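It is worth pausing here to work through a concrete case rather than discussing structure prediction in the abstract. The textbook approach is simple: state the sequence, then state the predicted structure, then interpret. We follow exactly that order.
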Amino acid sequence: MSHSGAGVVFGAERRARGGHEGARQMRCPMFTPYTLPDAFTPAECDAIVALAASAPLDDAGLVRDASDHNIRRADLAWLDEREGAEWVMDRIITLVARANREAFDFALTEFAESAQVARYGAEREGHFDWHSDIGAGAVASKRKLTMVVQLSEPSAYTGAS
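Step two, the predicted structure:
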């Protein structure tokens, strides 16, 4: 499929004033989006989709191996399990560093999760209900930034309201 390429949207949950990142704090229910347009070319988007489809996809879950199809129903590929996907993570690291420098200024010390490609197919009534990416669990409780890349052309489907 030919398309116009993909920008990335980063999100961070705002923290209440007066706290620091290492302390328990009241979190403000606001979302701070930051966009980097044209982060991936159309050819790169197609290559990422092809990498994800190069092996069977898993059923997407939630944190701590939980699964609830009322919240999330999708097919999922972890890119670190796909041969030849190293360049995607290299690009993601570059984009995260840039977005953090330009908009968030977090003390980022690790990438605890690999990149995933999710397919929310209409034949499965695919969806991901509203949620916060900061939650319980060893990794989710430390999550500072979430990066979303729209790999398909928005005109190729309906939904996502």
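Step three, interpretation. Residues 14-30 have pLDDT under 50 and may be disordered. The CA atoms of residues 62 and 134 lie 12 Å apart.
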